[in-house]
Specification:
Blueprint: H1 6-17, H2 26-141
Length: 145
């Protein structure tokens, strides 16, 4: 509500109460003093409010910075945890693959040993066949070696 001029106040009091005030009436002086005093209080309240708002803005900025720091830490810890889980999974996979590879290498060695034994047996068989063939040829030709 805007403040009324002295003439408007005089008119409103006359209309409502039927009392005619003069421009120098002590009640108007009192109203002017009241208005000035209240304006001073309003100024102080506004200054306090602005200080409070500044303080709240600063506190809000600090809370935002703290929240960012906390969020950053959470993200970093989550990323570290994820990386650790991936490293563990890869290590487990490598261990499993190495065990499988070692078993495959052992099986290949055993197969190679069996192949070597078969080749040796095959060579002995060929030598035996060659000796037998030589005996047969020698008998057929009448000669015994």
């Amino acid at each position: 509500m805007s403040s009324l001029s002295p003439q408007e106040l005089i008119g409103e009091v006359a209309k409502r109460h039927g009392v005619l005030l003069g421009p120098n009436d002590p009640i108007l002086v009192t109203l002017t003093l009241n208005e000035l005093i209240l304006a001073g209080y309003v100024d102080r309240v506004e200054q306090g409010l602005f200080k409070s708002l500044d303080h709240l803005s600063g506190a809000q900025a600090q809370h935002i910075d703290a929240a960012r720091e906390i969020a950053s830490g959470l993200i970093t810890r989550a990323a570290d945890y994820g990386a650790d889980q991936i490293h563990q999974a890869v290590d487990d996979l490598v261990t499993s693959l190495r065990a499988g590879l070692a078993a495959d290498v052992q099986a290949a060695r055993e197969a190679a040993d069996r192949a070597e034994q078969a080749r040796t047996a095959s060579n002995y068989a060929l030598i035996g066949v060659a000796v037998l063939l030589a005996l047969v040829v020698g008998l057929l030709l009448g000669r015994v070696i």
